[in-house]
Design brief:
By secondary structure, the protein is of the alpha/beta class. It has 16 helices and 19 strands. Helix 9 links the parallel strand 8 and strand 9. Bound molecules: pyridoxal-5'-phosphate.
Protein backbone atom coordinates (compact mmCIF):
# COMPACT_ATOMS: atom_id res chain seq x y z
CA UNK A 1 0.00 0.00 0.00
CA UNK A 2 1.42 3.40 -0.93
CA UNK A 3 -0.22 5.49 1.77
CA UNK A 4 2.54 7.03 3.79
CA UNK A 5 0.58 9.24 6.16
CA UNK A 6 -2.69 9.46 8.05
CA UNK A 7 -4.84 7.09 10.03
CA UNK A 8 -4.49 4.06 7.76
CA UNK A 9 -0.70 4.16 7.76
CA UNK A 10 -0.67 4.37 11.54
CA UNK A 11 -3.12 1.47 11.93
CA UNK A 12 -1.27 -0.81 9.56
CA UNK A 13 2.08 0.02 11.07
CA UNK A 14 0.69 -0.65 14.58
CA UNK A 15 -0.84 -3.96 13.49
CA UNK A 16 2.57 -4.94 12.08
CA UNK A 17 4.21 -4.71 15.53
CA UNK A 18 2.49 -7.86 16.82
CA UNK A 19 1.07 -5.74 19.62
CA UNK A 20 -0.53 -7.04 22.79
CA UNK A 21 -3.73 -5.14 23.47
CA UNK A 22 -4.72 -4.48 27.05
CA UNK A 23 -6.93 -1.63 25.89
CA UNK A 24 -10.29 -1.43 24.18
CA UNK A 25 -11.76 -3.08 22.13
CA UNK A 26 -12.28 -6.46 23.78
CA UNK A 27 -12.00 -8.62 20.65
CA UNK A 28 -8.22 -7.88 20.53
CA UNK A 29 -7.99 -8.43 16.80
CA UNK A 30 -9.27 -10.68 14.06
CA UNK A 31 -8.27 -14.01 15.61
CA UNK A 32 -11.38 -14.49 17.70
CA UNK A 33 -13.50 -13.89 14.58
CA UNK A 34 -11.54 -16.30 12.39
CA UNK A 35 -11.18 -19.02 15.05
CA UNK A 36 -14.88 -19.09 15.75
CA UNK A 37 -16.20 -19.24 12.21
CA UNK A 38 -16.82 -15.60 11.28
CA UNK A 39 -13.91 -15.27 8.83
CA UNK A 40 -16.22 -14.90 5.83
CA UNK A 41 -17.59 -11.70 7.36
CA UNK A 42 -14.06 -10.29 7.60
CA UNK A 43 -13.29 -11.42 4.04
CA UNK A 44 -16.37 -9.57 2.74
CA UNK A 45 -16.03 -6.65 5.10
CA UNK A 46 -16.37 -3.75 2.68
CA UNK A 47 -19.15 -5.45 0.73
CA UNK A 48 -21.12 -5.82 3.96
CA UNK A 49 -21.10 -2.03 4.40
CA UNK A 50 -24.62 -1.39 3.09
CA UNK A 51 -27.68 0.66 3.94
CA UNK A 52 -31.38 -0.10 4.42
CA UNK A 53 -31.98 -2.06 1.21
CA UNK A 54 -34.98 -4.43 1.05
CA UNK A 55 -34.53 -7.23 3.56
CA UNK A 56 -31.99 -5.30 5.66
CA UNK A 57 -34.58 -4.15 8.24
CA UNK A 58 -34.36 -0.78 10.01
CA UNK A 59 -32.64 -0.09 13.32
CA UNK A 60 -35.34 2.34 14.38
CA UNK A 61 -38.25 0.09 13.46
CA UNK A 62 -36.71 -3.33 13.82
CA UNK A 63 -38.98 -6.12 12.66
CA UNK A 64 -36.75 -8.67 10.98
CA UNK A 65 -33.00 -9.37 11.01
CA UNK A 66 -32.18 -6.57 13.46
CA UNK A 67 -35.08 -7.63 15.69
CA UNK A 68 -33.51 -11.13 15.76
CA UNK A 69 -30.24 -9.74 17.12
CA UNK A 70 -32.14 -7.67 19.68
CA UNK A 71 -34.00 -10.81 20.75
CA UNK A 72 -30.69 -12.67 21.06
CA UNK A 73 -29.43 -10.03 23.52
CA UNK A 74 -32.71 -10.08 25.43
CA UNK A 75 -32.28 -13.83 25.91
CA UNK A 76 -28.58 -13.65 26.71
CA UNK A 77 -29.01 -11.04 29.44
CA UNK A 78 -32.49 -12.19 30.55
CA UNK A 79 -33.99 -8.70 30.29
CA UNK A 80 -37.26 -7.18 28.99
CA UNK A 81 -35.78 -5.18 26.10
CA UNK A 82 -32.38 -4.89 24.43
CA UNK A 83 -31.44 -2.24 21.88
CA UNK A 84 -28.43 -2.12 19.61
CA UNK A 85 -26.40 1.08 19.78
CA UNK A 86 -24.23 2.31 16.94
CA UNK A 87 -23.05 5.48 18.72
CA UNK A 88 -21.52 3.68 21.68
CA UNK A 89 -22.76 3.59 25.24
CA UNK A 90 -22.60 7.37 25.03
CA UNK A 91 -25.83 7.33 22.99
CA UNK A 92 -27.60 4.99 25.41
CA UNK A 93 -26.60 7.15 28.35
CA UNK A 94 -27.85 10.37 26.75
CA UNK A 95 -31.11 8.71 25.66
CA UNK A 96 -31.65 7.33 29.19
CA UNK A 97 -31.28 10.78 30.73
CA UNK A 98 -33.57 12.40 28.14
CA UNK A 99 -36.15 9.69 28.91
CA UNK A 100 -36.01 9.88 32.69
CA UNK A 101 -35.36 13.53 33.53
CA UNK A 102 -37.60 16.38 32.41
CA UNK A 103 -36.39 19.88 31.56
CA UNK A 104 -35.47 21.68 34.79
CA UNK A 105 -35.63 18.40 36.72
CA UNK A 106 -32.93 16.91 38.93
CA UNK A 107 -30.59 14.03 38.22
CA UNK A 108 -28.66 12.47 41.08
CA UNK A 109 -25.38 11.47 39.47
CA UNK A 110 -21.92 10.26 40.39
CA UNK A 111 -19.38 13.08 40.12
CA UNK A 112 -17.04 10.65 38.33
CA UNK A 113 -19.53 10.01 35.54
CA UNK A 114 -18.38 9.89 31.93
CA UNK A 115 -18.54 13.01 29.73
CA UNK A 116 -21.56 11.68 27.81
CA UNK A 117 -23.65 11.84 30.99
CA UNK A 118 -22.75 15.49 31.46
CA UNK A 119 -23.70 16.00 27.80
CA UNK A 120 -27.07 14.31 28.44
CA UNK A 121 -27.61 16.51 31.45
CA UNK A 122 -27.00 19.63 29.39
CA UNK A 123 -29.29 18.42 26.59
CA UNK A 124 -32.02 17.61 29.10
CA UNK A 125 -31.65 21.05 30.68
CA UNK A 126 -31.54 19.28 34.04
CA UNK A 127 -29.79 20.08 37.29
CA UNK A 128 -27.10 17.73 38.68
CA UNK A 129 -26.92 16.59 42.28
CA UNK A 130 -23.50 15.01 42.73
CA UNK A 131 -22.66 11.79 44.51
CA UNK A 132 -18.98 11.72 45.41
CA UNK A 133 -17.32 8.33 45.10
CA UNK A 134 -15.27 6.90 47.94
CA UNK A 135 -11.52 6.97 47.52
CA UNK A 136 -9.27 3.92 47.53
CA UNK A 137 -6.47 5.80 49.27
CA UNK A 138 -3.99 2.98 48.99
CA UNK A 139 -4.01 3.29 45.20
CA UNK A 140 -5.08 6.92 44.83
CA UNK A 141 -8.13 6.10 42.69
CA UNK A 142 -11.87 6.51 43.01
CA UNK A 143 -13.91 3.65 44.39
CA UNK A 144 -17.55 2.81 44.80
CA UNK A 145 -20.55 5.06 45.25
CA UNK A 146 -21.81 4.18 48.72
CA UNK A 147 -25.41 3.23 49.43
CA UNK A 148 -25.42 5.84 52.20
CA UNK A 149 -24.45 8.65 49.85
CA UNK A 150 -27.34 7.69 47.55
CA UNK A 151 -29.72 7.52 50.51
CA UNK A 152 -28.62 10.94 51.78
CA UNK A 153 -28.91 12.58 48.35
CA UNK A 154 -32.37 11.16 47.82
CA UNK A 155 -33.48 12.41 51.25
CA UNK A 156 -32.15 15.89 50.42
CA UNK A 157 -33.56 15.90 46.86
CA UNK A 158 -36.79 13.89 46.88
CA UNK A 159 -37.86 15.80 43.75
CA UNK A 160 -35.11 14.14 41.64
CA UNK A 161 -36.41 11.60 39.14
CA UNK A 162 -33.42 9.35 38.51
CA UNK A 163 -30.04 8.23 39.83
CA UNK A 164 -27.14 7.40 37.51
CA UNK A 165 -23.74 5.98 38.35
CA UNK A 166 -20.97 3.93 36.75
CA UNK A 167 -20.53 0.35 37.88
CA UNK A 168 -17.85 -0.79 37.32
CA UNK A 169 -15.99 2.50 37.15
CA UNK A 170 -12.99 2.91 34.82
CA UNK A 171 -10.69 1.03 37.20
CA UNK A 172 -13.18 -1.81 37.59
CA UNK A 173 -14.63 -0.91 40.99
CA UNK A 174 -18.32 -1.84 41.23
CA UNK A 175 -20.95 -0.40 43.56
CA UNK A 176 -23.55 -2.26 45.60
CA UNK A 177 -26.23 -2.03 42.90
CA UNK A 178 -28.67 -4.33 44.68
CA UNK A 179 -28.88 -2.09 47.76
CA UNK A 180 -28.76 1.10 45.72
CA UNK A 181 -31.62 -0.12 43.51
CA UNK A 182 -33.73 -0.83 46.55
CA UNK A 183 -33.11 2.67 47.99
CA UNK A 184 -33.78 4.32 44.62
CA UNK A 185 -36.97 2.38 44.00
CA UNK A 186 -38.30 3.03 47.50
CA UNK A 187 -38.08 6.73 46.60
CA UNK A 188 -40.00 6.16 43.35
CA UNK A 189 -36.97 6.98 41.20
CA UNK A 190 -35.34 5.18 38.29
CA UNK A 191 -31.85 3.67 38.52
CA UNK A 192 -29.67 3.98 35.42
CA UNK A 193 -26.36 2.13 35.53
CA UNK A 194 -23.50 3.03 33.23
CA UNK A 195 -22.10 -0.47 32.82
CA UNK A 196 -20.03 0.58 29.80
CA UNK A 197 -17.09 -1.31 31.30
CA UNK A 198 -19.05 -4.34 32.42
CA UNK A 199 -20.84 -5.92 29.44
CA UNK A 200 -19.12 -9.20 30.38
CA UNK A 201 -20.18 -9.22 34.04
CA UNK A 202 -23.47 -11.04 33.52
CA UNK A 203 -21.61 -13.90 31.79
CA UNK A 204 -18.98 -14.18 34.53
CA UNK A 205 -21.88 -14.70 36.91
CA UNK A 206 -23.85 -17.15 34.77
CA UNK A 207 -20.93 -19.17 33.32
CA UNK A 208 -18.86 -19.45 36.50
CA UNK A 209 -21.79 -19.84 38.88
CA UNK A 210 -20.61 -16.91 40.98
CA UNK A 211 -22.71 -14.10 42.45
CA UNK A 212 -23.29 -11.63 39.63
CA UNK A 213 -21.88 -8.11 39.75
CA UNK A 214 -23.99 -7.15 36.70
CA UNK A 215 -26.51 -4.37 37.25
CA UNK A 216 -28.96 -6.20 34.92
CA UNK A 217 -29.12 -8.97 37.52
CA UNK A 218 -29.27 -6.71 40.56
CA UNK A 219 -32.38 -4.58 40.06
CA UNK A 220 -31.26 -1.62 37.92
CA UNK A 221 -33.86 -0.27 35.48
CA UNK A 222 -31.68 0.76 32.54
CA UNK A 223 -28.23 -0.74 31.98
CA UNK A 224 -25.96 0.55 29.24
CA UNK A 225 -23.02 -1.58 28.19
CA UNK A 226 -20.18 -1.18 25.73
CA UNK A 227 -19.92 -4.67 24.26
CA UNK A 228 -17.00 -3.23 22.29
CA UNK A 229 -14.92 -2.53 25.39
CA UNK A 230 -14.66 -6.05 26.81
CA UNK A 231 -16.57 -8.40 24.48
CA UNK A 232 -16.20 -9.01 20.75
CA UNK A 233 -18.17 -6.33 18.88
CA UNK A 234 -16.54 -3.40 17.08
CA UNK A 235 -15.66 -0.05 18.60
CA UNK A 236 -18.71 2.22 18.85
CA UNK A 237 -21.18 -0.67 19.02
CA UNK A 238 -22.93 -1.22 22.33
CA UNK A 239 -26.25 -2.29 23.79
CA UNK A 240 -28.74 -0.94 26.26
CA UNK A 241 -31.00 -3.16 28.34
CA UNK A 242 -34.33 -2.15 29.85
CA UNK A 243 -34.63 -4.52 32.78
CA UNK A 244 -37.86 -3.43 34.47
CA UNK A 245 -41.13 -1.78 33.45
CA UNK A 246 -40.35 1.50 35.26
CA UNK A 247 -39.24 3.06 31.97
CA UNK A 248 -41.59 3.82 29.07
CA UNK A 249 -40.00 1.85 26.23
CA UNK A 250 -41.67 3.91 23.49
CA UNK A 251 -40.36 7.16 24.96
CA UNK A 252 -36.93 5.58 25.26
CA UNK A 253 -36.98 4.40 21.63
CA UNK A 254 -37.95 7.90 20.55
CA UNK A 255 -35.01 9.45 22.40
CA UNK A 256 -32.61 6.89 20.97
CA UNK A 257 -33.51 7.65 17.37
CA UNK A 258 -33.30 11.36 18.20
CA UNK A 259 -29.63 11.22 18.99
CA UNK A 260 -28.20 8.33 16.96
CA UNK A 261 -27.05 8.46 13.37
CA UNK A 262 -29.76 8.05 10.73
CA UNK A 263 -27.24 5.96 8.76
CA UNK A 264 -26.54 3.15 11.22
CA UNK A 265 -23.53 1.11 10.25
CA UNK A 266 -24.38 -2.46 9.22
CA UNK A 267 -20.81 -3.40 10.00
CA UNK A 268 -21.31 -2.37 13.61
CA UNK A 269 -24.67 -4.12 13.77
CA UNK A 270 -23.16 -7.27 12.24
CA UNK A 271 -20.41 -7.21 14.83
CA UNK A 272 -23.08 -7.02 17.54
CA UNK A 273 -24.83 -9.95 15.89
CA UNK A 274 -21.60 -11.95 15.81
CA UNK A 275 -20.87 -11.06 19.42
CA UNK A 276 -24.30 -12.38 20.47
CA UNK A 277 -23.82 -15.57 18.45
CA UNK A 278 -20.35 -16.06 19.90
CA UNK A 279 -21.64 -15.68 23.46
CA UNK A 280 -24.49 -18.02 22.72
CA UNK A 281 -22.38 -20.79 21.19
CA UNK A 282 -18.96 -20.35 22.80
CA UNK A 283 -19.61 -18.03 25.72
CA UNK A 284 -19.10 -20.53 28.50
CA UNK A 285 -15.79 -21.81 27.08
CA UNK A 286 -14.44 -18.32 26.39
CA UNK A 287 -15.43 -16.94 29.79
CA UNK A 288 -13.88 -19.95 31.55
CA UNK A 289 -10.62 -19.49 29.61
CA UNK A 290 -10.64 -15.77 30.41
CA UNK A 291 -11.12 -16.54 34.12
CA UNK A 292 -8.32 -19.14 34.10
CA UNK A 293 -5.92 -16.69 32.46
CA UNK A 294 -6.77 -14.01 35.00
CA UNK A 295 -6.37 -16.44 37.88
CA UNK A 296 -2.98 -17.44 36.52
CA UNK A 297 -1.83 -13.83 36.17
CA UNK A 298 -3.11 -12.71 39.60
CA UNK A 299 -1.38 -15.68 41.24
CA UNK A 300 1.89 -15.57 39.32
CA UNK A 301 2.58 -11.84 38.94
CA UNK A 302 3.11 -10.87 42.61
CA UNK A 303 5.21 -14.01 43.15
CA UNK A 304 7.40 -13.58 40.07
CA UNK A 305 7.81 -9.79 40.38
CA UNK A 306 8.70 -8.91 43.94
CA UNK A 307 7.21 -5.61 45.06
CA UNK A 308 4.73 -5.44 42.19
CA UNK A 309 1.31 -4.45 43.47
CA UNK A 310 -1.66 -5.93 41.64
CA UNK A 311 -4.77 -4.29 42.97
CA UNK A 312 -7.34 -6.38 44.75
CA UNK A 313 -10.54 -5.02 46.24
CA UNK A 314 -13.77 -6.73 47.30
CA UNK A 315 -15.79 -4.75 44.74
CA UNK A 316 -13.28 -5.07 41.89
CA UNK A 317 -14.15 -6.50 38.50
CA UNK A 318 -10.85 -8.36 38.25
CA UNK A 319 -10.82 -8.29 34.43
CA UNK A 320 -9.27 -4.85 34.93
CA UNK A 321 -5.72 -5.46 36.09
CA UNK A 322 -4.41 -2.43 37.99
CA UNK A 323 -0.62 -2.59 38.30
CA UNK A 324 1.68 -0.49 40.47
CA UNK A 325 5.49 -0.71 40.15
CA UNK A 326 6.29 2.27 42.33
CA UNK A 327 8.43 -0.04 44.48
CA UNK A 328 10.89 0.16 41.56
CA UNK A 329 10.70 3.95 41.50
CA UNK A 330 8.59 3.76 38.33
CA UNK A 331 5.38 5.80 38.11
CA UNK A 332 2.40 4.99 35.90
CA UNK A 333 3.47 7.02 32.87
CA UNK A 334 6.96 5.51 32.89
CA UNK A 335 5.58 2.01 33.25
CA UNK A 336 3.23 2.59 30.34
CA UNK A 337 6.14 3.82 28.22
CA UNK A 338 8.28 0.81 29.13
CA UNK A 339 5.44 -1.55 28.25
CA UNK A 340 4.79 0.28 24.98
CA UNK A 341 8.46 -0.24 24.04
CA UNK A 342 7.73 -3.96 24.31
CA UNK A 343 4.61 -3.56 22.13
CA UNK A 344 2.25 -3.99 25.09
CA UNK A 345 -0.45 -1.34 25.20
CA UNK A 346 -2.41 -0.73 28.44
CA UNK A 347 -5.64 1.26 28.63
CA UNK A 348 -5.15 3.89 31.31
CA UNK A 349 -2.64 5.53 33.62
CA UNK A 350 -3.41 7.40 36.84
CA UNK A 351 -0.61 8.30 39.23
CA UNK A 352 1.26 5.07 39.88
CA UNK A 353 -1.47 2.87 38.46
CA UNK A 354 -1.39 1.35 35.00
CA UNK A 355 -4.69 -0.31 34.15
CA UNK A 356 -4.56 -3.24 31.76
CA UNK A 357 -8.00 -3.89 30.35
CA UNK A 358 -8.46 -7.52 29.47
CA UNK A 359 -11.12 -8.70 27.05
CA UNK A 360 -12.74 -11.81 25.68
CA UNK A 361 -10.15 -11.93 22.87
CA UNK A 362 -7.02 -11.98 25.07
CA UNK A 363 -5.11 -15.25 24.94
CA UNK A 364 -2.85 -16.85 27.57
CA UNK A 365 0.15 -15.69 25.54
CA UNK A 366 -0.90 -12.03 26.07
CA UNK A 367 -0.85 -12.46 29.84
CA UNK A 368 2.47 -14.29 29.56
CA UNK A 369 3.98 -11.46 27.53
CA UNK A 370 2.75 -8.95 30.09
CA UNK A 371 4.29 -10.90 32.95
CA UNK A 372 7.56 -11.39 31.04
CA UNK A 373 7.69 -7.65 30.35
CA UNK A 374 7.11 -6.80 34.01
CA UNK A 375 9.88 -9.21 35.01
CA UNK A 376 12.29 -7.61 32.55
CA UNK A 377 11.38 -4.10 33.71
CA UNK A 378 11.85 -5.17 37.33
CA UNK A 379 15.25 -6.68 36.54
CA UNK A 380 16.37 -3.56 34.63
CA UNK A 381 15.33 -1.13 37.37
CA UNK A 382 15.84 -2.94 40.64
CA UNK A 383 13.71 -2.72 43.71
CA UNK A 384 13.94 0.47 45.79
CA UNK A 385 14.21 0.08 49.51
CA UNK A 386 10.97 -1.45 50.68
CA UNK A 387 9.79 -1.44 54.25
CA UNK A 388 7.37 -4.22 55.07
CA UNK A 389 6.35 -4.58 51.46
CA UNK A 390 5.08 -1.00 51.30
CA UNK A 391 6.30 0.78 48.17
CA UNK A 392 8.44 3.83 48.81
CA UNK A 393 6.66 6.04 46.36
CA UNK A 394 3.25 6.69 47.86
CA UNK A 395 0.49 6.82 45.27
CA UNK A 396 0.09 10.33 44.00
CA UNK A 397 -3.20 11.64 45.30
CA UNK A 398 -4.29 12.53 41.80
CA UNK A 399 -7.83 11.44 42.34
CA UNK A 400 -8.12 13.55 45.48
CA UNK A 401 -7.69 16.54 43.22
CA UNK A 402 -10.00 15.22 40.54
CA UNK A 403 -12.72 14.50 43.08
CA UNK A 404 -12.49 17.87 44.79
CA UNK A 405 -15.91 19.27 45.69
CA UNK A 406 -16.05 22.48 43.73
CA UNK A 407 -18.54 25.21 44.49
CA UNK A 408 -21.47 25.10 42.08
CA UNK A 409 -23.48 27.87 40.50
CA UNK A 410 -25.75 28.22 37.45
CA UNK A 411 -24.34 27.01 34.11
CA UNK A 412 -23.31 30.15 32.19
CA UNK A 413 -24.89 30.88 28.81
CA UNK A 414 -22.57 33.73 27.73
CA UNK A 415 -18.94 32.60 27.46
CA UNK A 416 -15.47 33.98 26.93
CA UNK A 417 -12.07 32.40 26.45
CA UNK A 418 -9.34 33.25 29.00
CA UNK A 419 -5.79 31.97 29.65
CA UNK A 420 -5.67 29.20 32.25
CA UNK A 421 -3.60 31.43 34.53
CA UNK A 422 -6.53 33.85 34.80
CA UNK A 423 -9.27 31.28 35.15
CA UNK A 424 -9.21 30.54 38.90
CA UNK A 425 -12.37 31.84 40.60
CA UNK A 426 -14.30 32.11 37.31
CA UNK A 427 -17.33 29.96 36.44
CA UNK A 428 -16.51 27.05 34.15
CA UNK A 429 -18.43 27.25 30.87
CA UNK A 430 -17.14 24.11 29.13
CA UNK A 431 -16.05 20.87 30.83
CA UNK A 432 -12.35 20.28 31.36
CA UNK A 433 -11.69 16.58 30.85
CA UNK A 434 -8.44 14.63 31.04
CA UNK A 435 -8.39 11.78 28.47
CA UNK A 436 -8.41 9.02 29.48
CA UNK A 437 -10.49 8.48 31.52
CA UNK A 438 -12.84 11.04 29.95
CA UNK A 439 -14.27 12.03 33.30
CA UNK A 440 -14.75 15.79 33.74
CA UNK A 441 -12.52 17.36 36.35
CA UNK A 442 -14.35 20.69 36.24
CA UNK A 443 -17.95 20.88 35.01
CA UNK A 444 -19.92 23.80 33.61
CA UNK A 445 -21.32 25.88 36.45
CA UNK A 446 -18.49 24.99 38.85
CA UNK A 447 -16.10 27.61 40.18
CA UNK A 448 -12.66 26.92 38.71
CA UNK A 449 -10.14 26.06 41.39
CA UNK A 450 -6.40 26.83 41.35
CA UNK A 451 -5.33 23.39 42.61
CA UNK A 452 -7.31 21.66 39.87
CA UNK A 453 -5.86 24.04 37.27
CA UNK A 454 -2.35 23.26 38.50
CA UNK A 455 -3.10 19.55 38.18
CA UNK A 456 -4.30 20.06 34.58
CA UNK A 457 -1.21 22.12 33.77
CA UNK A 458 0.91 19.27 35.11
CA UNK A 459 -0.93 16.72 32.95
CA UNK A 460 -0.42 18.90 29.87
CA UNK A 461 3.25 19.35 30.67
CA UNK A 462 3.55 15.55 30.77
CA UNK A 463 2.00 15.36 27.32
CA UNK A 464 -1.43 14.10 28.40
CA UNK A 465 -4.55 15.19 26.61
CA UNK A 466 -6.86 17.55 28.50
CA UNK A 467 -10.01 18.45 26.57
CA UNK A 468 -11.48 21.87 27.29
CA UNK A 469 -8.04 23.54 27.37
CA UNK A 470 -7.05 24.61 23.87
CA UNK A 471 -3.57 24.47 22.34
CA UNK A 472 -2.93 28.04 23.52
CA UNK A 473 -3.79 27.06 27.11
CA UNK A 474 -7.15 28.89 27.15
CA UNK A 475 -10.39 27.78 28.78
CA UNK A 476 -14.01 28.87 28.43
CA UNK A 477 -15.55 30.71 31.38
CA UNK A 478 -18.83 32.54 32.02
CA UNK A 479 -18.97 36.16 30.96
C1 LIG B 1 -17.39 4.97 32.38
C2 LIG B 1 -17.70 5.16 30.92
N1 LIG B 1 -18.98 5.33 30.55
C3 LIG B 1 -19.33 5.50 29.25
C4 LIG B 1 -18.39 5.54 28.26
C5 LIG B 1 -18.82 5.76 26.84
O1 LIG B 1 -18.79 4.55 26.17
P1 LIG B 1 -18.70 4.48 24.56
O2 LIG B 1 -17.27 4.69 24.22
O3 LIG B 1 -19.18 3.11 24.24
O4 LIG B 1 -19.58 5.53 24.00
C6 LIG B 1 -17.03 5.37 28.60
C7 LIG B 1 -15.99 5.40 27.55
O5 LIG B 1 -14.84 5.16 27.74
C8 LIG B 1 -16.68 5.19 29.96
O6 LIG B 1 -15.41 5.04 30.33
Amino acid sequence: MNMNKGVTRFLLSHAGKNPVSFHMPGHKGSEIYRENGYGDFLDNFVDCDITEIPGADNLYQAEDIIAETMAAYRRLYGVRESYLLINGSSAGLVASILTCVHRGGKLIMARNCHKSIFNGLLMAGAEPVYLHPEMIDDYGISGEISVDSVRTSIAEHPDASAVILPSPNYYGVCSDIKEIASVVHDAGMVLIVDQAHGAHLHFFGSCLGEPSKAADDLGADIVIQSTHKTLASFTQSAIVNLCTDRVDKYLFEDKLQLIESTSPSYLLMASLDINADLLDRQGERLIREWEENLKWFYEEAPVQVEGLRVMSHPMLDHTKINLDMSAYGIDGLELEELLNEKAIFPELVTGNIVMCMTGIGNKRCDYERLLEALKEIAAEHGLCEVADGVPLAAPEATQTVTMKRLQQTAIPTAKESVPMEEAAGRVCAASIIPYPPGIPIICPGEIIDQEVLDYCADLRARGEKVMGIDDKGRVLVGR
